[in-house]
Amino acid sequence: MTLFSAGLLRSSSRSLASIQSWRARPGLNPNLKITHLSSSTSGTCAATISTRANPAASRSAPRSTVPIPPCRASVRSFSTTTITMSSTDTLIELAKARRTYYKLGKNSPVPDAKIEELVTNAIKHMPSSFNTQSTRLVVLLNEKHDKLWDIAIAALGNLVKTGAIPEELWKNQTLPKLEGFKAAYGTILFYEDPAHIAPYSEKFAMLKDHFGPWAEHSNAMHQWFRVGA
């Protein structure tokens, strides 16, 4: 899809004004009729002029194309990524089909290599403000995944011992949920690297308070990519 800036309209107005001025020059036949205007982004223009002295003359009368004074246009064209109906439909269907699954299991519908490929593509292609690329992803599968949730269960279990988490809440809600997560095949951890963001905050001091939220926006896009995949 190619889009054109408003400069095209402005340049067209200048082109017409230039033609009218050219046609009004002394010594030219006042019955000359402009029948076609063409212009290019380089600023050159041409017009097809009817050379008939009598406007009512036959339409088969000869015509010639003559140059007109240059009209320096401010036309700018730029291209954006082509969005096809099928691709937008696919994105919508992915959003509709997204569900949260609570009964997780150790069977994966795709091989480990495919999971790693999807994560690599997310890191490679997801955008970030100022191209900071501060998002970090860690893939944990099989025993490494189990170890992560054992650590989480032990850490929160200590909070039960100190009274920070009520024991009833722990037994009836928190622990079953953590064990449900552990029952899954793998885990993908999403991080932001503050050390990587800091230089941008220093370089663009006026925007330093925004880089944190912008990084979170990029992180969310990485997560959405994984959900859609």
TrEMBL record:
UniProt organism field: Rasamsonia emersonii (strain ATCC 16479 / CBS 393.64 / IMI 116815)
Signal peptide: none
Family annotation (InterPro entries): Frm2/Hbn1, Nitroreductase, Nitroreductase-like
Pfam families recorded: Nitroreductase
GO biological process: cellular response to oxidative stress
Gene3D superfamilies, A to Z: NADH Oxidase (3.40.109.10)
Record GO terms (molecular function): oxidoreductase activity
All copies of domain Nitroreductase, residue ranges: 96-223
Protein name per its UniProtKB record: Nitroreductase domain-containing protein
